[in-house]
Write a structure and sequence with these properties.
Radius of gyration: 16 Å
Number of helices: 4
């Protein structure tokens, strides 16, 4: 039985058999067992990490410590509001922070940069009622690596890449070609993340 710790581009935490290429955390979200409680974050430093840092292995849900989350790839992690970890993914973190600064967003490289980045990101991740923040935009202005939704009721996450859409199946974690995007879409990736992508940051994908 898969654990409920796979994160979708909608920011939802679900139980699916795929693990994905990156992991992360938002604090401890489970109780004494492996069931998640009501909370979906305990802090604002949402990061995405490598799954094989120096060969370390650890319990994905140690009591009272953390809940390990998994993402299919970095594009999905960015859509869910997670930035690169500055400890295990230093090169990606440095590139992300440089693009963040180039985009003119608050925070960036420096000692207090991550905290400002996380605070700003959090306002664009979720509403006060824990709903994902989404917005409408012309598809032509969105950079590669952005996740969008084209039909409000379909609940299908589409990755934009080289003027094409790729549907990320939440059942098997695979991408399926879906053709060119329509003129206007609903954007799932937080607006600051989109600006970082526009400034030149290139996320890892598993297309």
């Amino acid at each position: 039985m898969p654990l409920q710790n796979r994160v979708t581009p909608f920011g939802e935490i679900v139980a699916q058999p795929w693990r994905g290429g990156l992991m992360g955390n938002r604090g401890c979200l489970h109780g004494k067992g492996t069931e998640l409680g009501v909370s979906r974050w305990r802090h604002q430093a949402w990061v995405c990490c490598t799954t094989d840092y120096r060969g370390r292995q650890r319990d994905p849900m140690p009591p009272g410590r953390w809940t390990t989350l998994f993402f299919w790839d970095e594009a999905a992690a960015l859509a869910a509001g997670h930035r690169p970890c500055g400890f295990c993914r230093r090169q990606a973190y440095a590139a992300f922070m440089a693009a963040w600064a180039a985009a003119g967003l608050p925070g960036g490289p420096g000692d207090s940069g991550p905290q400002k980045v996380d605070r700003h990101l959090h306002r664009h991740r979720v509403t006060r009622t824990r709903q994902q923040v989404r917005y409408q935009a012309p598809s032509t202005v969105l950079p590669d690596g952005t996740f969008v939704m084209v039909e409000e009721g379909a609940h299908m996450a589409m990755l934009l890449w080289q003027s094409q859409m790729y549907h990320l199946s939440l059942a098997d974690g695979r991408y399926y070609a879906a053709g060119p995007p329509p003129d206007h879409v609903t954007v799932l990736t937080p607006e600051p993340m989109v600006r970082v992508l526009s400034a030149g940051y290139r996320p890892q994908t598993r297309l």
